[in-house]
Every structure is written in structure tokens, then in C-alpha cells.
Design a protein that fits this description.
alpha+beta, OB fold (Dihydrolipoamide Acetyltransferase, E2P), 16% helix, globular
């Protein structure tokens, strides 16, 4: 699914839409791939999405994968590499805003939507810095 505009998906609305279609399906989760500028504020990593400027807080991968293991009839388990991706991202980052691609599930909490880092890669381009790159 690709979104139009700059917004993030409305996870409860997506889940309700799938439920009401009457196919017996439900939304187990949403995994996204985002590109943007990595920065830190108050000891938390964020990514400012390229194009829209929307800001997503990043977190550790705390849940099993969105991907389903049909044979085992459960979600695929996280690998050690995936479990440690957020920590690796923090270690490899050098405090200056930097372009990154992040993959992982969107998780909605009571306060916000968080992108749990499952994997990431650094862009070979240097980010264009401007006043909106930090909060």
C-alpha cells in the first residue's frame, strides 16, 4: 500500500476497514519502509520523513514480525540481528543529521505512533541541512 500525501496511515481505521469487509480477515500489523533524516532529541532517535517532513519516533523491535509463518501458524520470530537493529543504528550514528532508510512495524501507543526498527541502511548522499532538521 502506498499513501498519497504526507500523512501516516490511520492504523485503527485500516483495521476497522479490513474487519468490516467481511472476509474474516484482520489487520495484524503494518510494516513500513521510510527514508529520511535521522536525528536525536532528549535521548530518543527520530526520522524526519523525506518529502513530507513528518517526524516518527524510533524504537526497539519489541514484537514479533508482522510476517506470518503459515506452517507454524504464528508470526515469524525476530532474529537477533533484527532485535538489535535499533541499538546498532544508535551506535553507528554520529550525532549529525544523516539520511537513512528504516524498515519496521508501526506501533500505535496511547500517545503516538512509533516505528520499531527491524532493519536500516545508510544513504550514500549527505543530507541537506536546514532549520527544520532539528526540533
Amino acid at each position: 500500500m502506498r499513501l498519497r500525501g504526507s500523512g501516516l496511515p490511520d492504523l485503527p481505521a485500516m483495521a476497522e476497514h479490513i474487519r468490516t469487509m467481511g472476509f474474516g480477515a484482520r489487520l495484524r500489523g503494518v510494516e513500513v519502509t521510510v527514508e529520511g533524516t535521522l536525528f536525536e532529541e532528549r535521548e530518543r532517535l527520530y526520522v524526519r520523513l523525506a518529502g513530507s517532513g513528518a517526524v516518527l519516533p524510533l524504537g526497539e523491535l519489541k514484537h514479533n514480525k508482522v510476517q506470518w509463518d503459515f506452517k507454524a501458524k504464528r508470526a515469524h520470530r525476530r532474529t537477533n540481528q533484527e532485535r538489535e537493529a535499533h541499538s546498532r543504528l544508535r551506535r553507528e550514528w554520529r550525532t549529525a543529521p544523516r539520511l537513512v532508510t528504516v524498515v519496521g512495524p508501526l506501533v500505535e501507543t496511547k500517545k503516538q505512533v512509533i516505528l520499531e526498527v527491524r532493519e536500516f541502511s545508510w544513504s550514500s548522499s549527505a543530507p541537506a541541512l536546514n532549520a527544520s532538521d532539528t526540533r
